[in-house]
Amino acid sequence: MQLLASLTKCSTLGLIQISTELNINNPLASLFPRSGTARLQLSSNQKEGGTPYKLRCQVTVPTAVPQPHAPSGGAGRSNQFADRKVIRLALPSKGRMAEGTINLLKECQLSVHKPNPRQYTADIPELDNLEVWFQRESDVVRKLLSGDVDLGIVGYDIVAEYGQDDGDLIIIHDALGFGECHLSLGIPTYGIFENVSSVAELAAMPQWTADHPLRIVTGFTYLGNRFLKNKGLKHAQLSTADGALEAAPAMGTADAILDLVSSGTTLKENNLKEIDGGRLISSQAVFVASKRALLERKGVLDIAHEMLERLEAHLRARNQFLVTGNMRGDSPAEIAERILTKTHFPGLQGPTISPVYTSKTGIAKVDYYAVALCIRKNDLYDAVRELRAIGGSGVLVSPLTYIFEEEPRRWRELLQNLEL
Ligand SMILES: Nc1ncnc2c1ncn2[C@@H]1O[C@H](COP(=O)(O)OP(=O)(O)OP(=O)(O)O)[C@@H](O)[C@H]1O
Ligand SMILES: O=P(O)(O)OC[C@H]1O[C@H](OP(=O)(O)OP(=O)(O)O)[C@H](O)[C@@H]1O
Asked: What is the position in ligand 1's atom list of the atom closest to the CA of 98?
């Protein structure tokens, strides 16, 4: 296909003009954006001995139509990938995710040591040959895809938006337990939207036409475009803004927003609401890697393994208490049976039961046993009640720091995913 194209800024603010020349027998339809206008001019070109006819086509496109973020995968991969020996972990440089990440790593006994607060690098003394790079969240994902970093911690929303389903991104841990939110459509609670309670109803509103589409402002154009397509929202148009999106409908600059929601307070305070079918994704912080780095750079898989073990052990323990109590009984087996049949709390694999030796008469003797159980924090009071009901006393409750399993499920899944 012969296609000559040039782009010129038009004098009219907010428009760009695209001029193209192309063979008359080429399909034109794909060149016309839905909201642009085209001017066609047919001319003979025989004197130059080239293609007999040329069709000159000018397309005018509103610049406000947002394009998805430029893909940054395969083609943009850094050619220094193979030369680099040091392993790189990218962490969010600012905001709530930065704080949450540093705190989580600290709780896993991985201290991020930043020699100079004004620099963007750090190290983690517990992990050899690892360099930490602090980056904006979108850049964490871009740099994973370009091969400039190997591992990262970032919100899943950002992986989904900037990763654009690139097969090189692999999520090692999908629930790090902070930065929980969801990406959702928010529409006004008032005016023409007052009785709208689902995306289907929104799409069916007669107000939206090709000339007057539903205007949605968002920072998530990739996910937003996919959502519009999936939901059949034909007459809808996305625009972008970096913050304070919730103000746009009241200002009249958009009809709806597509933004992150956590408690829902910001939506509510701006007279906006979520509707059925309007939730795009749920998100929280994730541990993510470049598949290529895991497979090809020496040491990346080992570091991923160690970090995953520590994260899993800590996150499992975080929701549990260690509960110990004394119980009279004839034998450990008899006590175990009482716990397993008469309570809802068997512990991790089952209760740990050990004899308690007393020596009132000078001779060691076993009258009762100590029972140790891991109990979910939410179940604590029910568990204490049930233990008491079967003869438990002197119940002690202590926090748990780590629970190391034989091998984390997510590690097995990672190896499977990598076909190792
Ligand atoms: N209300 C929220 N509650 C919990 N997590 C959130 C919330 N809003 C956003 N997040 C998570 O935190 C990430 C960063 O959002 P945040 O609004 O803090 O950005 P930021 O780092 O301050 O950048 P910016 O200044 O560009 O807004 C989001 O990508 C998302 O994963
Ligand atoms: O449902 P809520 O708990 O009210 O949280 C939602 C708000 O949190 C985020 O903004 P953030 O506070 O990070 O400020 P930002 O707009 O500057 O990103 C998000 O963009 C929403 O505005």
From this structure: 21
Q: Pick the ligand that lies closest to the CA of residue 243.
A: 2
Q: What is the 3-state secondary structure (H, E, C) of 265-327?
A: HHHHHCCEEEEEEEEEEEECEEEEEEHHHHHHCCCHHHHHHHHHHHHHHHHHHHCEEEEEEEE
Q: How many whole angstroms from 155 Cα to the centroid of ligand 1?
A: 8
Which residues' Cβ are closer than 6 Å to ligand 1? 94-97, 137, 155, 157-158, 179-181, 242-243, 260, 262, 283
Considering every ligand atom shown, identify the ligand nearest to the alpha carbon of residue 257 and give its number: 2
- Calculate the CA 194 to chain-centre distance: 32
Q: Architecture of 181-283 per CATH? A: 3-Layer(aba) Sandwich (3.40)
Closest ligand 1 atom to residue 96 Cα is 18
Among candidate residues 142, 107, 98, the one with its CA nearest the CA of residue 307: 107
User: Between the CA of residue 164 and those of 18, 118, 174, what are the distances in Å?
Assistant: 27, 32, 17
ipTM of this complex prediction, to 2 decimal places: 0.95
Residues 236-262: tens digit of each pLDDT? 999 999 889 999 999 999 999 999 999
pLDDT over threshold 80, residue 25: no
Domains 74-179+285-316 and 181-283 share a fold: yes
Structure confidence by residue, pLDDT tens digits, 194-210:
999 999 999 999 999 99
Which has the closest alpha carbon to 417: 170, 155, 63, 223?
Answer: 170
pLDDT for the residue numbered 77: 63
Task: Tell me the CATH class for 320-399.
Answer: alpha beta
Architecture in CATH of 74-179+285-316: 3-Layer(aba) Sandwich (3.40)
Ligand nearest to the CA of 242: 1
Q: What residue has token string 């293609």? A: 51
Q: Which residues line ligand 2 (CB under 6 A)?
A: 243-244, 246, 259-266
DSSP state of 16: E
Q: Provide the whole-model pTM.
A: 0.80
